[in-house]
Amino acid sequence: MTFQQLIQQGIPTELPHSKPYDSNINHAPKRKEILSDEEKKLALKNALRYFEPKFHAELLPEFREELEKYGRIYMYRFRPDYEMKARPISEYPGKSEQAKAIMLMIQNNLDYAVAQHPHELITYGGNGAVFSNWAQYLLTMKYLSEMTDEQTLTMYSGHPMGLFPSHKDAPRVVVTNGMMIPNYSKPDDWEKFNALGVSQYGQMTAGSYMYIGPQGIVHGTTITVLNAFRKINKEPKGGLFVTSGLGGMSGAQPKAGNIAGCITVIAEVNPKITKIRHEQKWVNEIHENLDELVAKVRKAQENQETVSLAYLGNIVDIWEKFDEENLRIDIGSDQTSLHNPWAGGYYPVGQTFEESNTMMAESPELFREKVQETLRRHASAINKHTAKGTYFFDYGNAFLLEASRAGADVMSENPTIGREFKYPSYVQDIMGPMCFDYGFGPFRWVCTSGKPEDLQKTDDIACAVLEEMIKTSPEEIQQQMKDNITWIKGAQENNLVVGSQARILYADAEGRMKIAEAFNKAIANGEIGAVVLGRDHHDVSGTDSPYRETSNIYDGSRFTADMAIQNVIGDSFRGATWVSIHNGGGVGWGEVINGGFGMLLDGSDDADRRLKSMLFWDVNNGISRRSWARNEGAVFAIKRAMEAEPNLKVTLPNFVDESLF
Ligand SMILES: NC(=O)c1ccc[n+]([C@@H]2O[C@H](COP(=O)([O-])OP(=O)(O)OC[C@H]3O[C@@H](n4cnc5c(N)ncnc54)[C@H](O)[C@@H]3O)[C@@H](O)[C@H]2O)c1
Predict the structure, then answer these.
(1) Residue located nearest, by CA, to atom 4 of ligand 1
(2) pLDDT for residue 574 is more than 90
(3) How many angstroms separate the alpha carbon of residue 245 from the centre of ligand 1?
(4) Are 381 and 316 in contact (CB under 8 A)?
(5) Which of 90 and 249 is assigned the larger pLDDT?
(6) pLDDT at 22
(7) For residue 373, which of 400, 408, 334 has the smallest C-alpha distance?
(8) Distance between CA 213 and CA 497 in Å, rounded?
(9) Does the structure show a pLDDT above 90 at 495?
């Protein structure tokens, strides 16, 4: 059968041969044993409902074995044999170009070069799933291949519920992931409902098919590192940035440090991952000896080198050793996966990687104690450095939250609402006031032709638009505009494309609309093929996350999720090609609600109308909320937006004189 026929077939009518477990691939860790015997039976019944009864007797023991061995039923046997990668859009079968674009994006999220655990359908973050099992993948692709522009596919946490009649301006796909009744949204609930096969963790861009490989995070991290150095009034040259994690997202840090021009020291406990990042040239050197590492850092500081140094070991050892040695750290952070602390996101100090993996599965309670003990040591070592002048920020990985839960010394002495911790989150100090409040966020696009020339042309178009805009941009946003023009000019050289031909930059509402409009014109003129627009959820409006995206909201509304819900509903009726809303992103299940969209530009007048309507809302929704929370940058930005668009009328806050209290 051809690739197209295989897609159209969906779940095969004859059982494929079972597949051997491929140990050359990076696999998800065994998940916690959480189901009772009765619940295991339910999980198996849930899995088998995808298949005709005649296959059940053969599949049951296999699925039972998967559940026992891995804690989940992935249905490995149904993994397709064709190569998993984004193909040019013309190669997908179907009646709807929009649906074909979504197929392309789904395959990109599962590409072996892109996905963290491709056989478990996990794109990044350890548990960020596109689907929970291969039957869901096969069925979804089949639906997409047969749908028209008068139908909408509803996705319930990876499960394709079906095609429903709608209309051409409606989204082709509506994705919800992990939406729970709030009282059932604790980490163990995720383990349980995911193991039962009825809910999944979509992370941010995994379950919404908008992951574009590491480029997105490299860009965001570069902007963060540059602005962190600006925050302490220091040039990156010769400055030292200490952090941890070389995983899906965290691995961007040494590359971003190199682009920013500083010295990066990064700890990683997993030897396989460390080797991959080194081979990819994302980190320059690997060190296993702490004394040698210290000597190397001193030399790099003296010579003001730009270099990134991985330490194969625990991050706590770095903070403690650098304190003993009195090494000056300028900027410090952490990007272990503390949104997932008990299942492999954070490794205890003083034991090997293998010992930890065994303990996690066999003695989860002891593992939990070790993690919390390590968090206390970790925070205490950081405190010693910050007392000597290090600027430390939480990098959106729930470090401060989990450290506080472990009883570490991270609480502020004089807490105010929103400033409970000793240290700010990167959004409180950097991304919030410098980017999000002004509407700057992670606008991205994918060239569906798969041609690098198209990407080059879109880079040129975006750059020309920004260069035109900066001539009249107000002082308040000049720095952001400059950083992004520099980024887009160097984008080809930084060689960041993995998987689909994709690009990211930060732009405000006006910039996003103008770039999209220019792309749509170029498509209409036949200069480039169709383009998918999107963003990650780490943005102005899409995400309500009290310790991350909305951590610089100080009016008490940080724990509400109205903005994210409004955003996805608003995007869906203003022309998005697909929309998604998730419980649980970078900071963990139950800790965040985040939404995203995808939009196909095909050069049509309809696309032009939709992009203007939807992008304007998609950014200004969040600016209005940030402005209502009294964030001054956002008040400035929303007033500017109202001047540009008379139909926008937003309630503005009145400021109260503090002395009245
Ligand atoms: N700041 C952002 O913009 C942003 C964006 C996305 C994700 N995140 C968050 O950052 C975290 C990391 O994401 P990821 O995709 O890289 O996850 P990941 O699980 O792929 O990588 C984390 C890495 O940390 C390593 N690690 C764990 N404990 C360690 C320890 N004590 N010492 C040294 N290394 C250790 C792990 O081996 C792993 O490779 C997540 O919590 C994620 O949600 C932040």
Answers:
(1) 396
(2) yes
(3) 5
(4) yes
(5) 90
(6) 93
(7) 408
(8) 8
(9) no
C-beta of residue 365 within 8 angstroms of C-beta of residue 275: no
380: CB partners within 8 A, 6+ apart: 408, 409
SS3 578: strand
β-pair partners for 446: 502, 532
Element (DSSP H or E) covering residue 243: strand 240-244
Query: How many other β-carbons are positioned within 10 Å of the β-carbon of residue 358?
Result: 12
Quick: pLDDT tens for 28-75. 989 988 999 999 999 999 999 999 999 999 999 999 999 999 999 999
pLDDT tens digits, residue range 596-643? 999 999 999 999 999 999 999 999 999 999 999 999 999 999 999 999
Beta bridge partners of 393: none
570 close to ligand 1 (CB < 6 Angstrom): no
Residue among 610, 611, 612, 617 nearest 566 (CA): 617
Span 322-337, average pLDDT = 97
* CA 203 to ligand 1: nearest atom: 43
- 124 C-alpha to ligand 1 centroid (Å): 10
Confidence of residue 187 (pLDDT cuts 50, 70, 90): confident
Give residues with Cβ within 8 angstroms of 620, minimum separation 6: 439, 509, 541, 638, 641, 648, 650
Pocket test for ligand 1, best of 337, 353, 357, 543 (most atoms within 8 A of CB): 337
What is the reported pTM? Answer: 0.90
- Distance between CA 153 and CA 627 in Å, rounded? 35
Residue type, 388: K
- Best residue for ligand 1 mutational test, from 335, 377, 594 (most atoms within 8 Å of Cβ): 335
Instruction: List the residue whose alpha carbon is closest to atom 11 of ligand 1.
Output: 337
Write out the DSSP string of 207-237.
TTT--BTBHHHHHHHHHHHHHHHHHTT--ST
Nearest CA owner, ligand 1 atom 32: 314
Looking up tokens 């655990």 gives 117
Q: Is the CB of 440 under 6 A from ligand 1?
A: no
Q: Is 308 close to ligand 1, i.e. is its CB under 6 Å away?
A: no
| HEC sequence for 371-410 | HHHHHHHHHHHHHHHHHCCCEECECCCCHHHHHHHCCCCC
The minimum-distance atom of ligand 1 relative to the CA of 315 is 32
Cβ–ligand 1 distance for 270 under 6 Å, the answer: yes
Which residue type occupies 378? H
